[in-house]
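Hi everyone,

Forwarding the result from last night's run.
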Amino acid sequence: MIKKRNGEIIVTNEKQGQFLKKLYGTVGGRMALKVLTAPIVSKIAGAYMDSPLSKPLIDRFIKSGGIDTSQYIMDGFRSYNDFFTRRVRPEKRPIDTEPNHLISPCDSKLSAYRINGRSLFRIKDSYYSVADLLGNSFLARRYEGGVCLIFRLEVDDYHRYCYIDDGNKTSNFFIRGVLHTVNPIALRRYNIYKRNSREYTILHTVHFGDVVQVEVGAMMVGRIKNRHGEHDFLRGEEKGMFEFGGSTIVLLFEKDSILIDKDIALNTRDGFETVVKYGEKIGRAAH
């Protein structure tokens, strides 16, 4: 369930969720996915999305997705991926520049959770502990007692994302996705059929401490395009984008570093995601 920040409830399409549940919830569906997500198939599909042959998909997607094209710079598309990663008009996504305000890195549906040693977070229809998400138990322990923000992008969202503050970053760490076709791995009471490709870095920010940012992409071939390795960054500067097949961003904050806006916290408690936009305030520094 989804809420806008004015409290309006958005009715979502459940058909896609039901289809994915059947696809991942049956051995036959997962066997088909194993073929569809094979490296050679993914490369062919990616090449098609990058080629002029995919341009006819653009108009169809605009109509079916109800895309408000007035929000975007709508010229010079050579392929579907060019359109998918289209740039928003800067005046449509003003960046909140108040130093102690925490901004959203992207257009998305946001959920906010406290982190403890037993936390499991649902991300792209799989369950992860922080250690599972990062593949790094030592780093995960730094964020116990902190906050996990999950930004879920849908296909009609703006698929570029920005830095949330001034600071500098480490190199990017890529984790390849996996698919369990017959015997899923067991994580406590959940059976896990897949792990998505993901990439993370540590952001050493001026106002919010050391923040881990994780981009979660397609299952086997990550369509994540980060612009920088080690880098000094500014609030609102573009960090990267998702090509077709993205797209969730996770931010991990240390204990007592931020206070999330009350409406977002209450919406999450009540089972709602909150619609947020690139550059808008979603919280503030705790001190």
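The chain has a mean pLDDT of 89.

Cheers,
N.
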